């Protein structure tokens, strides 16, 4: 029998007689929480005063696992040739477990305090892509969880949340999690993929232990697959390893998958608004290409970066170059670059190239704004 959408998430923290068991455990749980809060303070101080070296980072990762009562078991090995790993999502601390045993960075859209994000091995997707694109090479492998949010692990959601196009060689990772007495993740009506589930994180502090198992599967080659086919193959590989069903449900389809009162029409309106913001900066990029990339990134900043740097190819709209303004003083100061496939060799050259394009982009956007509103301001 096919699984239904309500079976993919936990609606309550307790099930069966677990609530009664937890009531007897509660005094010990409160004591354990107090100890772990002290460990968190030690972790915060240590992260400030200790140098940023690999040995220190590993020690801090271990201390973070102790703080949240996380124990991790790794099956298989990470392929050093893969800079991108893809996994299912079962909790808000998957990133910590993966960072501890795989040394990964997880890209999420959550806005977290810098110390807390660093402790969990999380980077903001938009900020990371803008900065990392101009560095010589990624310092750590990247973990992507394209389901969009945590489930109870009984089925796999459709992969829809991609902050950037994946490469030709990707390693899938299957994650399972267990905890006595309480469910690790609970779905609430106000849940959003952009908001960190703080209540789930707090339950880690008082739970006796949370056990993760990460199974690093053999890498997959893209071959002739397009993005959609490759993502489907990755999803099925993970589902087979977990022995669960790969459903066609999306994270937004689950109850509480979008903020209360937000409809599909509201989501469409938001996508249209984000597309307008992108095209205000990059008017030559066709709207269909902008919407296609926004559907994957859900970020104006990331989509603009993808087009500027040629990560997403496109054919400029003819009208963008067919309507020159009269007079030499009105010549455009910024022309949307067409991807050339040439990438500067050094990080310094890439940063300079980016800064020049950024200044040109700002100047042109300012010029269009002044002309649109008829302001009597000199255009530099």
UniProtKB/TrEMBL annotation:
<protein>
    <recommendedName>
        <fullName>Lipid droplet-regulating VLDL assembly factor AUP1</fullName>
    </recommendedName>
</protein>
<dbReference type="InterPro" id="IPR003892">
    <property type="entry name" value="CUE"/>
</dbReference>
<comment type="similarity">
    <text>Belongs to the AUP1 family.</text>
</comment>
<keyword id="KW-0812">Transmembrane</keyword>
<dbReference type="GO" id="GO:0043130">
    <property type="term" value="F:ubiquitin binding"/>
</dbReference>
<keyword id="KW-0472">Membrane</keyword>
<dbReference type="GO" id="GO:0036503">
    <property type="term" value="P:ERAD pathway"/>
</dbReference>
<keyword id="KW-1133">Transmembrane helix</keyword>
<dbReference type="GO" id="GO:0005811">
    <property type="term" value="C:lipid droplet"/>
</dbReference>
<keyword id="KW-0256">Endoplasmic reticulum</keyword>
<dbReference type="Pfam" id="PF02845">
    <property type="entry name" value="CUE"/>
</dbReference>
<feature type="domain" description="CUE">
    <location>
        <begin position="270"/>
        <end position="312"/>
    </location>
</feature>
<feature type="transmembrane region" description="Helical">
    <location>
        <begin position="22"/>
        <end position="50"/>
    </location>
</feature>
<keyword id="KW-0551">Lipid droplet</keyword>
<dbReference type="GO" id="GO:0005789">
    <property type="term" value="C:endoplasmic reticulum membrane"/>
</dbReference>
<dbReference type="InterPro" id="IPR048056">
    <property type="entry name" value="AUP1_CUE"/>
</dbReference>
């Amino acid at each position: 029998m096919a699984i239904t959408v309500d079976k993919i998430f936990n609606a309550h923290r307790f099930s069966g007689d677990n609530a009664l068991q937890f009531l007897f455990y509660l005094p010990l749980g409160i004591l354990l929480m107090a100890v772990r809060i002290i460990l968190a303070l030690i972790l915060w101080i240590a992260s400030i005063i200790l140098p940023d070296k690999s040995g220190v980072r590993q020690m801090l990762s271990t201390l973070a696992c102790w703080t949240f009562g996380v124990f991790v078991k790794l099956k298989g090995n990470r392929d050093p040739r893969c800079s991108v790993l893809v996994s299912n999502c079962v909790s808000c601390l998957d990133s910590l477990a993966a960072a501890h045993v795989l040394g990964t960075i997880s890209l999420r859209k959550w806005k977290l305090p810098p110390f807390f994000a660093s402790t969990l091995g999380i980077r903001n997707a938009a900020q990371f892509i803008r900065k990392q694109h101009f560095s010589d090479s990624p310092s750590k492998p990247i973990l992507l969880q394209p389901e969009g949010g945590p489930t109870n692990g009984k089925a796999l959601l459709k992969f829809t949340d991609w902050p950037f196009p994946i490469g030709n060689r990707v390693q899938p990772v299957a994650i399972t999690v267990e905890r006595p007495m309480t469910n690790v993740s609970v779905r609430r009506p106000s849940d959003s993929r952009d908001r960190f589930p703080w209540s789930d994180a707090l339950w880690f502090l008082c739970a006796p232990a949370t056990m993760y198992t990460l199974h690093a599967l053999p890498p997959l080659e893209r071959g002739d697959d397009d993005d959609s086919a490759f993502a489907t193959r990755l999803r099925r590989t993970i589902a087979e390893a977990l022995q669960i069903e790969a459903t066609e449900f999306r994270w937004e389809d689950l109850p509480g998958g979008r903020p209360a009162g937000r409809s599909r029409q509201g989501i469409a309106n938001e996508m249209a608004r984000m597309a307008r913001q992108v095209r205000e900066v990059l008017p030559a990029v066709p709207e269909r290409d902008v919407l296609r990339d926004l559907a994957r990134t859900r970020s104006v900043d990331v989509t603009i970066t993808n087009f500027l740097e040629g990560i997403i190819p496109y054919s400029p709209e003819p009208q963008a170059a067919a309507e020159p303004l009269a007079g030499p003083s009105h010549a455009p100061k910024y022309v949307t670059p067409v991807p050339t496939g040439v990438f500067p060799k050094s990080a310094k050259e890439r940063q300079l190239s980016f800064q020049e394009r950024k200044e040109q982009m700002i100047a042109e956007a300012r010029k269009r704004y002044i002309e649109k509103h008829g302001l009597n301001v000199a255009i530099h």
